[in-house]
Backbone:
RNA sequence: GGAGAGAUGGCCGAGUCGGCUGAAGGCGCUCGCCUGCUAAGCGAGUGUAGGGUCAAAAGCUCUACCGAGGGUUCGAAUCCCUCUCUCUCCGCCA
């Protein structure tokens, strides 16, 4: 959510931002609502002042055993008027905040203006793609022939876009989760948390998934509980409504959770393999920082995520998303795209964003500087560190051998009883 | 699932038959004084949000907030209803 005062004074900048994000949205209803809101607020507050002073007078008259029925009758009228105005006000308020919650964040000045992923800007490449003297296969073929990935049975027990992992496949997924958490906690200073895998709607409004992207979520019937689409939601909301001390910043959290996404609107896309599932595992990195350091924190968050790929020896590139491709809540986003030789393409494996104070305002996460009385909003950041399923995909495709086996990257072997190679059992 | 108890400011805790209680008292914290140092003592201050005023900030001022929402009333932390959460006991259960 944007700052109300900023919206009032910068309607033109917001209009330009909406164009940059390729959104069709008219701001005038919001500004009209704001004026109306303040008009009604002023009137109702004046009446409440009148009522409060009269109340004291009535109280005094009663103590003096004087008749106060005239004043009481008068206030009866005033109170009715207040009640009516209060109802108007809360209706306007509701409409107003509903609108405000639909306005996306302002992109950082360093973000390139563009329409879609073709306008994203390449930041860097790391490593080199492996070479093969045979045709590298896509991971679903590798996984199925090794007997470690089973899409057919997952479809039987649940449906499309689910996977059943067997044996070394399941173990590899688990090894990756543990490896990632170990690196982030022991080397990057993050505190590990294990949050609930369901959250309420308030939390989802806090991070920006609601109210606009309801159709992307799985909701429990008859309850205000949603399956988490990412650990970003519960973890960012850890400090919702709190005022932190300056010394407590930055806070660094890492969490493993499964993620559940309805993938509405992506019918027919990535139907094969693990790339686009309704349920996938992810290790997430979340930071709460002071405003003046948040862009440094974004850079280090990105490099924390990169470390995992480097340790695994996987070639990747980093792009900065353009205005048209960036998420609703983000000010700036880097995507890390890993090389997948089986599909001859780069695929997103991590997305690292600075949300500045956009989520903090929605979730009401503040801090107080030492010796200051004013509170300020923190900046929130998060990034995948990494998407586990896609990492497993990358390992299968990059480490496949001519004989159909897959070599285990050395850093993972301690987590897999020193297994060096995955072969068909 | 059944029965009961509770939710007040950073924390503890008081609020009588509804009426100067944004909220006593204590602790903590901040500033000042005092004091070889520390401790103690003395004095003052110490919530959040929104509106108005102001070029802006400061200041001044108003409104709201005693778990959340609604109701009764001229007036609600105090009375009534609904919900949420916490705790205790019983039942069930990984």
Residues:
């Amino acid at each position: 959510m944007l700052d109300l005062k900023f919206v009032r004074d910068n309607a033109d900048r917001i209009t330009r931002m909406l164009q940059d994000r390729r959104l069709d949205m008219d701001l005038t209803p919001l500004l009209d609502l704001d004026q109306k809101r303040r008009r009604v607020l002023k009137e109702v507050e004046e009446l409440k002042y009148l009522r409060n002073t009269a109340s004291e007078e009535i109280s005094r008259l009663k103590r003096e055993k004087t008749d106060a029925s005239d004043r009481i009758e008068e206030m009866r009228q005033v109170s009715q008027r207040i009640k009516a105005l209060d109802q108007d006000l809360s209706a306007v308020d509701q409409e107003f905040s509903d609108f405000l919650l639909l306005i996306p964040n302002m992109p950082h000045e360093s973000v390139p203006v563009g329409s879609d992923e073709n306008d994203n800007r390449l930041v860097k490449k790391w490593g080199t793609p492996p070479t093969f003297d045979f045709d590298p296969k896509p991971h679903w073929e590798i996984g199925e022939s090794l007997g470690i990935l089973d899409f057919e049975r997952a479809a039987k027990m649940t449906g499309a876009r689910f996977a059943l992992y067997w044996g070394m496949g399941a173990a590899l997924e688990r090894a990756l989760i543990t490896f990632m958490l170990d690196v982030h906690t022991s080397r990057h200073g993050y505190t590990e948390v294990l949050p609930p895998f369901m959250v309420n709607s308030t939390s989802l409004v806090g991070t920006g998934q609601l109210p606009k992207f309801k159709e992307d979520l799985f909701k429990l019937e008859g309850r205000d509980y949603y399956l988490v689409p990412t650990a970003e939601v519960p973890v960012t909301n850890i400090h919702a409504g709190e005022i932190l001390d300056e010394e407590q910043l930055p806070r660094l959290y890492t969490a493993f959770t499964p993620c559940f996404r309805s993938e509405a609107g992506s019918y027919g896309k990535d139907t094969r393999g693990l790339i686009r599932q309704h349920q996938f595992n992810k290790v997430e990195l979340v930071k709460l920082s002071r405003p003046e350091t948040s862009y440094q924190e974004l850079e280090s968050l990105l490099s924390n995520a990169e470390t995992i790929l480097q340790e695994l020896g996987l070639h990747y590139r980093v792009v900065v998303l353009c205005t048209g491709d960036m998420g609703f809540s983000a000010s700036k986003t880097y995507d890390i795209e890993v090389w997948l030789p089986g599909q001859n393409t780069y695929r997103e494996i991590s997305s690292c964003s600075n949300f500045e104070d956009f989520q903090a305002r929605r979730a009401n996460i503040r801090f107080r500087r030492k010796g200051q009385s004013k509170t300020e909003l923190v900046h929130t950041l998060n990034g995948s560190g990494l998407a586990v399923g896609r990492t497993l995909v990358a390992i299968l495709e990059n480490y496949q051998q001519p004989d159909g086996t897959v070599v285990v990257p050395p850093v993972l072997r301690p987590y897999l009883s020193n297994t060096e190679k995955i072969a068909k059992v």
Q: What stands out?
A: The first strand of chain A starts at residue 121 and ends at 126. The two ends of chain A are 53 Å apart (CA to CA).
